[in-house]
Amino acid sequence: MIPASDLFDQSVLTALLDHDPLVADYRAFFSLLDWSVVQRWEAQRSPLGRPAHPESAYLKAFLIRIREGHALHHATASLFAAPPAAGDRTRLSSRA
User: Fold this and answer.
1) Is residue 14 part of a domain?
2) How many domains does the chain have?
């Protein structure tokens, strides 16, 4: 939600984001969290080797994945996979 483009007018991008219901929903969600903890942590870190974006951007992306149900998909998918039925060789290795 950081509008930055060399091609497009920034005021237009900002206006579009200000009127987007999804952006408004996530801005409201993020406003419920105390970001001062992240800001203090960032201030204590060395500027050398820091990523181009603030840590809060990565945390927000992760929170979006969790909220949308994508973050744990790979971890939980194997828990719900049914084991192969007795005699079902299609799900077993190709060795005879």
Assistant:
1) no
2) 1
